[in-house]
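Possible regression after last week's pipeline update?

I re-ran a chain I had predicted before the update to compare outputs. Posting the input and the new output here so someone can diff against the archived version. Not blocking, just want to make sure nothing changed silently.
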Amino acid sequence: MTPDSNLARATARRYLTNLQGEIDSAAFYRGLAEIEPRPELARIYRRLAEVEQSHGEYWKKRLLELGRDVPSLQSRWRSRALIWLARRFGPWFVLPIATSLEHESGAYYDAQPEAAAGGLPAAERSHARVIEALAAPVPLLSIAALTRLEGRHQLGTALRAAVLGANDGLVSNLTLVMGVAGASMKPHAILLIGLAGLVAGSCAMAMGEWLSVTTSIDSYLREIEVRAEELSELPKEEREQLISIYRAKGLVEKEAADLANRLIGQDTTRAIKSRRGLESSPGQFTRSAWI
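New output (post-update):
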């Protein structure tokens, strides 16, 4: 068997695995649509199922291009088990699992050039954000109140850093002065050593803070770049889905639109606040590392 034939067989198996995953996802979302009592949310589940089905058609075409037959596949036990749990306990019970599966699918597709060419990684992550919005509780505060609290959070973070830094400096410098004073040194020598310790401690803490903040900013900006590329591909459809979700949860049109815009708005530095490590406020990206 030639290397080319081995590669073709491996590629066909990978395409078949992808097809099976899309069939499972489509069956899962169709099941949620049948269970969901709210028409707005049921429509979103049906839309997600349609997208997953189109992804399945994409992999069927890829298999045909390789000259392979497309087998008739059914959803596997995992999808059926999740649907059973949703019928038993409600759709909300399985949404965290669905979010995790969508994130895994996006990461799995990242390594496949064929999937990236079809826009599948971005679509899977878009689905994950929609499912996260479905599972998350709606904020009881208005957008203005959330913004004010966000500003207080930033101030609290800066105040905490200042208090911890001052405490560290006082303790270390006091320990240094007490140590040299115990050696029966002259008062002016003790004062000079104390000042030197104060300067050294200040420089060390400032450098440590600068390195920490600079590294964090680089990481945040890289994540923003990746998420901005994803959001640029499916902004309108995802925004409409998020608005429908928040409307179904009881928000008025304006606040639902505001929440959706905060998540996928044009200014991505204000939009990025995901559950994948970006727990800090996006407003900190513009803050100097020395503050």
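Follow-up from reviewer: compared with the archived run. The domain at 3-135 is CATH 1.20.1260 (Ferritin). Marking as no regression found.
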